[in-house]
C-alpha cells in the first residue's frame, strides 16, 4: 500500500523539483505530470515522481487529517502512568450496649 502525502514544491530545476513534507526535503521528477507546476504548488509523489498536482485547499485539508492521525498516534504511544490501587478504608465494628 502506498500513502500519498501532499508535498510542497520549494525549488524547481528543469524537469526536477525539491519538495518538502513536514520538514523533510527530497528531490523528485516532474516528468509524469500533465500540467505545469510552480514553487508553492502541492503534488502527490510516488516512487520519486510527482504524479498529480493538488489544489492548495485540498492539500492543506489532507495535511490536516494527517496531523490529526499523527497526534492520535503520539498520544497512543505515550507511556501510561500505572493505575494506583485505591486505599480501602478499614471498617471497625461498633460495640453495641
Key attributes of the depicted protein:
97 residues, alpha+beta, 1 helix, 5 strands
Task: Describe the structure concisely.
With 97 residues, this protein is of the alpha+beta class. 23% of the residues lie in helices and 31% in strands. The protein has one helix spanning 56-77; strands at 7-13, 16-21, 24-29, 42-46, 49-54.
Describe this structure in words.
- The protein is an alpha+beta fold and 97 residues long.
- The protein has a domain at 7-70: SH3 type barrels (Roll), CATH 2.30.30.
- It has one helix at 56-77, and strands at 7-13, 16-21, 24-29, 42-46, 49-54.
- A hairpin with a 2-residue loop joins strand 1 (7-13) and strand 2.
Q: Using DSSP, what is the number of strands? A: 5
Q: Low-confidence parts, pLDDT < 50 over ≥5 residues? A: none
Could you tell me the mean pLDDT? 87
**Fold-level CATH name of the domain at 7-70:** SH3 type barrels
Q: Estimate what percentage of residues fall within beta strands.
A: 25-35%
Helix content: 10-25%
Shape: rod-shaped
H/E order of the elements?
Answer: EEEEEH
The total count of helices amounts to: 1
SS content category: alpha+beta
The gyration radius over C-alpha positions equals 26 Å
Assign the CATH class of the domain at 7-70.
Mainly Beta
How far apart, in Å, are the first and last alpha carbons? 78 Å
Question: Which CATH-level-2 architecture of the domain at 7-70?
Answer: Roll
Order of adjacent strands in the largest pleated sheet: 3-2-1-4-5
Largest sheet: 5 strands, antiparallel
Amino acid at each position: 500500500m502506498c500513502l500519498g502525502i501532499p508535498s510542497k514544491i520549494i525549488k524547481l530545476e528543469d524537469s526536477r523539483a525539491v519538495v518538502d513534507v513536514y520538514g523533510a526535503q527530497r528531490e523528485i521528477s516532474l516528468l509524469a505530470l500533465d500540467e505545469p507546476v510552480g514553487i508553492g504548488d502541492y503534488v502527490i509523489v510516488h516512487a520519486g515522481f510527482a504524479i498529480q498536482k493538488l489544489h492548495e485547499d485540498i492539500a492543506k485539508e489532507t495535511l490536516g487529517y494527517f496531523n490529526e492521525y499523527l497526534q492520535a498516534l503520539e498520544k497512543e504511544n505515550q507511556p501510561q502512568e500505572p493505575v494506583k490501587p485505591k486505599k480501602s478504608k478499614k471498617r471497625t465494628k461498633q460495640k453495641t450496649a
